[in-house]
Amino acid sequence: MANNIGRIVELGQEFARTGGGGLRSALGTLGKSILGTGGILIGIQLLISFLPTLQKKFKEMTSESGNLNDATKKLTKSYDELTKSIKENNKAQAEQDEDLDNALDKVFRLSERLEKNRKKYGDSAKEIERFNSNNASTLFLLDKRIKQAEELGVKINYLRLNEEGYREELEQQVGTAGTLAKSIEEMKTRIKSR
């Protein structure tokens, strides 16, 4: 290449001496000839001289593009793994959300049941209180009746009080004893009055 440039300069000087118009005109003519067939020949010579360097650069680019391809493949693989992991996490999250919704539904239903049971228990507690109050009155009257029966001489078997029909039997005995007691009292009154 150094030979060609030197030759071009030499030709330019010679042209300037013989062609007229000076260096400027010589350079203009040189430019026109470079754009023509002479330029094509110069371009081919430049390509041939730079071919080893260009070839080396192309090899480096190809090697680097291979590395870039490997890096792209690794990146794509990492992206695929990350996408798969995200999908699995989303699925697990959806299952957890569903489990949480189910648990909340159960808690809500149990809360409703608890509230109903509280109301029932409150009503039941009132009923039990009413029953106990009535039962206390009944027991008081029963105790009073038992004492009256014993005063009239009726023997009471406490173990049989819960037997069916025993109370009615006692009532008859108390009634009979009461009637007898009244009769006796009336006779006493008559005897005293005479």
Distance between the termini: 178 Å
Q: Mind summarizing the main beta sheet? A: none
Percentage of residues in strands: under 5%
What is the N-to-C succession of helices and strands?
HHHH
Q: How many DSSP H or I helices?
A: 4
Low-confidence stretches: none
* Count of strand segments: 0
Look at the helices and sheets and give the structural class.
Answer: mainly alpha
Radius of gyration: 64 Å
Mean pLDDT: 77
What does the oligomeric state look like here? single chain
Model description:
This protein has helices at 2-19, 22-34, 37-151, 166-193. It is rod-shaped, with a radius of gyration of 64 Å. The mean pLDDT is 77. It is mainly alpha-helical and 194 residues long. The chain folds into 2 domains: 2-73, no CATH class; 120-193, no CATH class.
Structure, briefly:
This protein is mainly α and 194 residues long.
Please specify the SSE layout and strand pairing.
Layout: H1 2-19, H2 22-34, H3 37-151, H4 166-193
Helix pairs in contact: 1-2
Which terms would index this structure?
4 helices, rod-shaped, mainly alpha, 194 residues, 2 domains, 90% helix
